[in-house]
Amino acid sequence: MNTVKDFPIQRNRLLNVAFLLVCLCLLDAVFTDCGLRLGYIEEANLLVAFMYDQSIALFYIVKLGLPLLLLYILAIRASGIIVRISLTTALFLYITVLFVHIFWLILAAI
Fold first, then answer.
1. Tally of CA atoms within 13 A in the half-sphere of 75 that contains its CB
2. Residue 33: left (phi > 0), alpha (psi -120 to 50), or beta?
3. What single string gives the DSSP state of each residue in 3-51?
4. Is 45 left (phi over 0), alpha (psi -120 to 50) or beta?
5. Phi, psi angles (nearest 5°) of residue 29
6. How far apart are the C-alpha atoms of 18 and 4, rounded to whole Å?
7. Which of these, 45, 33, 24, 32, lies nearest to 87 by C-alpha position?
8. Would you say 13 and 74 are in contact if contact means Cβ atoms under 8 Å apart?
9. Which H or E run contains 77?
10. How many structural domains are present in the chain?
11. Is residue 5 exposed (0-12), middle (13-18) or buried (19+ Cβ within 10 Å)?
12. What is this structure's pTM?
């Protein structure tokens, strides 16, 4: 049976998508941090709000650590269906969140 590891182009594409996810996660963390610091938004996720209140460094470590962990799993292991579904779901959620943050920043600037 062929796996993604047998197809280097497919594997590179998945790694590129995972890298995009890490970049989107970083943008989300920065926009969230700016919005919280300036008082434009409140963090709706109680766990993330708790981490932010405890330490901004902890907030960034967790926000970036999870997609980096997914990228690491993808890099060391042949990609299975669960990893691809996780990657696709996370990418969709972060794109949605990024657009929400941009919308909030536009509203705050008006």
1. 10
2. alpha
3. -GGG-HHHHHHHHHHHHHHHHHHHHHHHHHHHHHHHTS-----HHHHHH
4. beta
5. -65, -45
6. 15
7. 24
8. no
9. none
10. 1
11. exposed
12. 0.73
Which domain range does residue 55 map to? 4-109
Q: Is 33:59 a contact under the CB 8 Å cutoff? A: yes
How do residues 16-61 score in pLDDT, each as one tens digit? 888 888 888 888 899 889 888 988 788 888 998 999 999 999 999 9
Tokens of 73: 């799993």
Using only the alpha carbons of the chain, give its radius of gyration.
16
Residue type, 39: G
Query: Is the confidence at residue 7, as pLDDT, over 70?
Result: no
- Is-contact 90 82, C-beta < 8 A? no
Burial-class residue 32 by CB neighbours within 10 Å (0-12, 13-18, 19+).
buried
